[in-house]
Write a structure and sequence with these properties.
Strand order of the largest sheet: 3-2-4-1-5-6
Order of helices and strands: EHEHEHEHHHHHEHHHHEH
Number of helices: 13
Largest sheet: 6 strands, parallel
CATH architecture of the largest domain: 3-Layer(aba) Sandwich
Strand content: 5-15%
Distance between the termini: 12 Å
Length: 300
């Protein structure tokens, strides 16, 4: 029987430290389940494990995708399945804050169509310079059901829906019924969601951002900005990136950029709590202090 631990939680909750301790104790492979830590460009700002930490246990799916690539949950799920096939029944820990990745593992994904690169490029070129609200209105006229599910400010998902419509002639909602088989079946996994006290978590988020700046996050973002990537790409919307780019361009002071980045991250952590409460069925909630003991039960 496969032994898999799914260790989830809000940003800055201590997931990585707990996962590393468990991986060392049980000889487990660590697999990234965070949509920003998949990118190579932002080790510091996404709090990816350090190179020293990566030497302490096998790490997979961390920093393996270039920022110019628009990665997706489907791509991640396929890579996760490949890794599970490679390691067989050896212990494995999926760790991260992207709840949809965990649902993909345990419930399967909707059977979504593939969009060719020429169609994707054409939609992106047509959208360049247009407000997201205009794109959402265009989607609403063609696919009102999908548009109703998306915030008018959600540029990435709006573009994805327009791409599917252009590629297939069918609305994105039409593909939401059929689901692929999950990579992990019931009985093969145990889920733990780290739930720190909110006030302590928010302080940790603020302190961590200051530490990131001290460690060179601004230089990291400057290198990313120099690539002139599409602003709609996920890596360009990582927490802190838009605000630090605004600082580099002289539109915000570093202090202003920092405060906005911290606020965005605190709001994101709040949404992670809400999402987990409603969407991560079967996960045990634990304090960070109890994380290692709770996770260890998956391997005993």
């Amino acid at each position: 029987m496969r032994r898999a631990l799914l260790l989830a939680g809000p940003t800055a909750s201590g997931k990585s430290a707990a996962a590393l301790a468990l991986a060392e104790e049980f000889g487990a492979t660590l697999v990234n389940a965070d949509s920003m830590q998949v990118y190579a460009d932002l080790r510091i700002l996404t709090a990816r494990p350090t190179r020293a930490e990566e030497r302490q246990a096998p790490h997979r799916l961390f920093g393996e995708i270039d920022g110019a690539v628009n990665s997706s949950v489907g791509r991640w799920a396929r890579r996760a399945q490949e890794i599970l096939a490679e390691i067989g029944e050896a212990p494995v820990i999926f760790v991260g804050g992207t709840g949809l990745y965990f649902r993909a593992l345990t419930e399967g994904l909707s059977d979504m169509p593939t969009v060719s690169e020429p169609i994707r490029a054409a939609i992106r070129a047509k959208a360049e310079g247009r407000p997201t609200s205009d794109l959402h209105a265009e989607l609403e006229a063609a696919d009102p059901e999908t548009a109703a599910r998306l915030r008018p400010s959600d540029r990435q998902r709006t573009l994805r829906a327009l791409e599917v419509l252009a590629a297939t002639g069918r609305p994105l909602a039409a593909f939401h019924g059929a689901r692929a088989q999950p990579a992990l079946r019931a009985g093969e996994w145990r889920g733990v969601f780290l739930a720190p006290v909110r006030e302590a978590l928010y302080r940790r988020i603020d302190d961590r951002f200051e530490a990131m700046i001290a460690e060179g996050a601004l230089d990291e973002v400057e290198r990313l900005a120099a690539r002139k990537l599409d602003p709609a790409l996920p890596v360009m919307r990582a927490h802190g990136v838009p605000h630090l780019i605004a600082h580099l361009e002289g539109r915000l002071s570093l202090a202003e950029a920092g405060e906005r980045a911290k606020l965005d991250t605190r709001h994101y952590a709040k949404r992670q709590f809400t999402w987990a409460r409603h969407q991560l069925a079967g996960f045990e909630w634990a304090s960070p202090e109890a994380a290692v003991e709770a996770g260890a039960r998956a391997f005993r």
